[in-house]
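Here is the promised in-class demo. Please do not try to memorize the tokens; focus on the logic of going from shape to residues.
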């Protein structure tokens, strides 16, 4: 029995996907530009199967890369926090003369050529993100769709990324910035910046905070949609906790955002207020994300271990945390000194 499904493509055209199911045989699928071609193919396949003359073509020859990306985008991409960014990355792969190719023809050598083309205009980290987005598409094609036997990107190396910058506020800069935020025209900015510094949470984790995530009794905030997809509870210090308690008394009744924006249903962004505070405080080369680096740096300088910093920041591995190692050298030296004194009596 054959079924034909009409499906739109990324360029606005229509295709017809036909699936032939017959008892004792694996389902066979193919995609055509017209319904008549789809019917002819299904009738031919059914006849060949009944007469035991059908030798199936590999799925990797039947489906194109564009077809795979379209299916992946509908079934998997929409569930990701970075959906918009990866949709743009996958669209690039479709338009780089690869989309029309059967999956069987998308070889590691061809992908390496495209990687090199990307590297001419993008950083190694960005190139790696493009490769990672496409790699997961291929992984799903292998595991779930059975359109490929292996992921061709397994044999394509990634570029060496820089360790990333560590820009953090020194004591004087921190005091100037907090004072500028407190004196600014937006009364919410000070609390948002203070929470970022006190918890190490990402910008959108703070700006996207809702009151049900705030537990004033247990003195924690719970991050529900983090970058790595895991929930994370963060303890609140006394100063941000006191400010949240005061704010809870006068919160808006038409919104559960801790920092509601001007438009209904959207959180605040603070772009203008943030830039103004930086200028007022005379702080240069500093982004909101550097508040997170500042929190991690303060943890390292106050003796927190790599594991503790990773748990607070929500990193799954210690690789990202090692950038703060130099800031904890004095603490490590103290630990070694105490160990030597206890063992050798120094």
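The designed amino acids, position by position:
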């Amino acid at each position: 029995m054959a079924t034909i499904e009409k499906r739109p493509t990324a360029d606005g055209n229509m295709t017809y996907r036909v699936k032939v199911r017959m008892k004792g045989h694996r389902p066979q699928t193919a995609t055509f530009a017209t319904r008549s071609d789809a019917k002819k193919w299904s009738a031919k396949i059914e006849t060949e199967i009944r007469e035991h003359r059908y030798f199936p073509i590999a799925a990797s020859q039947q489906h194109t890369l564009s077809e795979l990306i379209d299916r992946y985008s509908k079934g998997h991409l929409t569930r990701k926090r970075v959906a918009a960014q990866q949709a743009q990355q996958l669209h690039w792969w479709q338009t780089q003369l690869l989309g029309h190719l059967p999956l069987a023809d998308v070889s590691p050598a061809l992908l390496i050529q495209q990687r090199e083309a990307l590297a001419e205009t993008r950083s190694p980290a960005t190139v790696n993100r493009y490769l990672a987005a496409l790699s997961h598409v291929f992984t799903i094609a292998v595991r779930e769709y059975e359109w490929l036997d292996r992921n061709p990107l397994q044999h394509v190396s990634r570029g060496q990324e820089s360790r990333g910058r560590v820009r953090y506020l020194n004591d004087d800069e921190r005091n100037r910035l907090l004072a500028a935020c407190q004196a600014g025209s937006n009364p919410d900015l000070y609390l948002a910046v203070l929470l970022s510094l006190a918890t190490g949470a990402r910008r959108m984790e703070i700006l996207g905070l809702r009151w049900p995530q705030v537990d004033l009794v247990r003195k924690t905030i719970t991050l529900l949609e983090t970058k790595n997809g895991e929930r994370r509870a963060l303890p609140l210090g006394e100063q941000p906790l006191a400010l949240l308690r005061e704010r809870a008394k006068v919160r808006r009744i038409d919104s559960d955002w801790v920092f509601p924006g001007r438009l209904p249903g959207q959180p605040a962004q603070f772009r203008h207020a943030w830039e103004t505070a930086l200028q007022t405080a005379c702080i240069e080369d500093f982004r909101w994300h550097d508040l997170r680096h500042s929190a991690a740096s303060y943890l390292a300088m106050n003796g927190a271990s790599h594991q503790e910093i990773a748990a607070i920041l929500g990193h799954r591995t210690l690789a990202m945390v090692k950038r703060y190692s130099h800031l904890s050298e004095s603490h490590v030296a103290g630990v070694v000194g105490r160990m030597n004194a206890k063992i050798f009596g120094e």
